[in-house]
Amino acid sequence: MTNRLFDDDVPQAPPADVGVEMRVAETLDMPEAPEYGAPGEQSAHVPSFTDADRVLRVWIDDGALVRVQVSPSWAHKLKGRDTLERHFRQAFALAAVDLAIPDEPLEAPPDRAADPLAGLPDDVLAEFERIPPLNKRTISSFTALFRDLDARLEAAIARADSVPQPTTQRVSARSKGATVTLDEAGRPFEVAFEPRWLDGADAGAIGANVLRAAGRARLRYLPPAEVDRTELDELTAEQDLLNRAYLAALLPHRAFRATPGSARSADEADR
């Protein structure tokens, strides 16, 4: 990621502005933003995002706004009815999309039909070895187990649906003429400026007060309570194990190497 924040013809913001931003971050007990101009520092540790016209740049670490840089000539870049608020929304929207993408690619689920024993611990494998080949009795047993598990899953889902889901709301906070709103996930969503204050504010003051307002909003934000999924997770794991046991019984020639004296070998000898 480049260190050149804005167009070549636009001078960098004065170092004093950076100091203001750093002091604001420290007073809010937020992670310190990387020093502006250090090669590769900000891109290596804290991702940054800009708008389409490169009017501004924001640094967001773990969903929190930690640094803001506004072009000193931002007012000259706005055309017609364009607003600085719109450029902040663009940068925040880009950040929200980027942060929603997982760092590691999602792994494809294993093919249970190809190998129903993959990843099972030894004690479970020992129990699977005791499963006899499918016959009327084992099919009847599996059917009863599936019906019982389905009934328990339906009841658990109904109980979970009856519990009110935790919700959260957008929160806003203000610093001088800048008001920052966080979305339901606690990420910066938009900025609103008082026109008279904005007319007299320079780029450093804008960035510092947006950062300060975002920190105050972050302190007000209450994340939703976590939903207790213990029962559903346990039943889902039980369902996976039962499916694998049934697949293993269906595919004995692939899944098992019966050894003399095993339950499968004895059953096959009786036949």
Write the layout of secondary structure elements.
Elements: H1 15-27, H2 41-45, E1 48-50, E2 56-61, E3 64-70, H3 74-77, H4 84-100, H5 122-129, H6 136-162, E4 171-175, E5 178-182, E6 188-193, H7 195-200, H8 203-220, H9 230-250, H10 252-255, H11 263-270
Antiparallel strand pairs: 1-2, 2-3, 4-5, 5-6
Helix pairs in contact: 1-8, 6-9
List keywords for this structure.
6 strands; 3-stranded antiparallel sheet; elongated; disordered N terminus; disordered C terminus; 2 domains; mainly alpha
**Largest sheet report:** 3 strands, antiparallel
The strands making up the biggest β-sheet line up spatially as 1-2-3
Arithmetic mean of pLDDT: 76
> N-to-C SSE series?
HHEEEHHHHEEEHHHHH
Shape: elongated
SSE-based structural type: mainly alpha
**Helix fraction bin:** 40-55%
Total number of distinct structural domains: 2
β-strand percent reads 5-15%
Measured on Cα atoms, how large is the radius of gyration? 29 Å
How far apart the termini lie comes to: 70 Å
DSSP summary: helix tally: 11
Low-confidence stretches: 1-43, 254-271
Number of strands: 6
